[in-house]
């Protein structure tokens, strides 16, 4: 059985969980708050980040780093491949996974998590409205980019649903939980995201709550 | 024929170039200074980063993101596989590639590139000695981690040479070019790095120079 160390608003864990959901792989959740920098956690993963996955059925090193975890399950479980097509198609999917994991995260998810989650539950401080405004402006630019991609392909990463969609939806879902997205524009991105939200793999994520931080009323709804 | 857009001190391009060298894949270099944020480059790669690889022999989208590029050549060229072993072994290799690309880069290479390259050739400013000291201290911690890994395995990523070695050597070589490493301690890491430097895939990198920035005398030598 797999055990996944994470916290409800970890966008990288959400990408992994969407993949596990699509592939039908079961796992138990084990709460881990990386900002607490627990010694045992750092000994296991010096990067100090979630997700970490442990196979409790055998003696094996834990799986660390969300992309390494996704590649592992792509290699070992054939069902619902999320790295489809030619080598070139797969390169484009991986480029976009990095894009959302790095750029979307840095511009949007990370500042929102800091201002609206960490400041509330760790520092008991009020969010910086300037930082929030910048992050929300960046979110619009990122949704514009998704609109642009969807102008000439069916899914974010190409002709089929892929890890690029899961990576994008993971970051967006955390951003949306934290009230960082104004769904007034970006019709294409919105339609795509509602499609992602309606998948069975997405439901458990939407039902979870981070203690002390509430999502906006539309967060779980399928009509944005 | 492949064309690689890069600049001499791009650590991510160095990782790709070491892989191409090991696999015996030829390519032409095309200078690209990402800090100039050239419009045509940003149109091609919104992330604005090197490396980008273009196959000039056919109409195909460019390959973007250093890990996506490495995975592409791992999938298409069998020779000198750098992702060896079981799925678990490969997960460990990929974890360490992310470690060096993200953490070593953030803690060591990025501040050194900013202080000793960008400030010199772009801003014409003097480096901040406090930032340099912090980066060099972080470099020691990273070499300690490599020592620790080499305590119980033959190579950084496991029993065979892998992409983890290439990623680590790429970051270290740029750091070393910028005078960021004190080779007095870390005997294991030093022996391993001298081994990496002596590979034919490494020689072209060591011979290159970044205009306006000179490496220390030991940079190319095999006796550190």
TrEMBL record, chains A, B:
<dbReference type="InterPro" id="IPR036282">
    <property type="entry name" value="Glutathione-S-Trfase_C_sf"/>
</dbReference>
<dbReference type="InterPro" id="IPR010987">
    <property type="entry name" value="Glutathione-S-Trfase_C-like"/>
</dbReference>
<dbReference type="InterPro" id="IPR036249">
    <property type="entry name" value="Thioredoxin-like_sf"/>
</dbReference>
<dbReference type="InterPro" id="IPR040079">
    <property type="entry name" value="Glutathione_S-Trfase"/>
</dbReference>
<feature type="domain" description="GST N-terminal">
    <location>
        <begin position="1"/>
        <end position="81"/>
    </location>
</feature>
<dbReference type="GO" id="GO:0016740">
    <property type="term" value="F:transferase activity"/>
</dbReference>
<keyword id="KW-0808">Transferase</keyword>
<dbReference type="InterPro" id="IPR004045">
    <property type="entry name" value="Glutathione_S-Trfase_N"/>
</dbReference>
<feature type="domain" description="GST C-terminal">
    <location>
        <begin position="86"/>
        <end position="216"/>
    </location>
</feature>
<dbReference type="Pfam" id="PF13409">
    <property type="entry name" value="GST_N_2"/>
</dbReference>
<protein>
    <submittedName>
        <fullName>Glutathione S-transferase family protein</fullName>
    </submittedName>
</protein>
């Amino acid at each position: 059985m797999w055990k996944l160390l994470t916290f409800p608003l970890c966008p990288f864990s959400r990408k992994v969980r969407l993949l596990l959901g699509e592939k039908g792989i079961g796992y138990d959740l084990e709460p881990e708050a990386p900002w607490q920098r627990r010694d045992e956690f750092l000994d296991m993963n010096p990067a100090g980040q979630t997700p970490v996955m442990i196979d409790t059925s055998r003696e094996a090193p834990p799986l660390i780093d969300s992309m390494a975890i996704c590649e592992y399950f792509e290699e070992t479980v054939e069902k619902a491949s999320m790295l489809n097509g030619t080598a070139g198609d797969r390169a484009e999917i991986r480029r976009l996974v990095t894009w959302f994991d790095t750029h979307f995260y840095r511009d949007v998810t990370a500042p929102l998590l800091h201002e609206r989650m960490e400041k509330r539950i760790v520092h008991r401080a009020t969010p910086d409205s300037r930082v929030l405004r910048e992050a929300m402006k960046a979110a619009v630019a990122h949704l514009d980019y998704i609109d642009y991609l969807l102008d000439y392909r069916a899914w974010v990463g190409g002709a089929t649903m892929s890890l690029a969609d899961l990576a994008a939806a993971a970051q967006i879902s955390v951003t949306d939980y934290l009230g960082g997205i104004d769904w007034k524009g970006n019709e294409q991105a919105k339609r795509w995201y509602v499609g992602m939200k309606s998948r069975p793999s997405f439901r458990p994520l939407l039902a979870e709550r981070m203690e002390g931080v509430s999502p906006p009323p539309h967060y779980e709804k399928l009509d944005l």
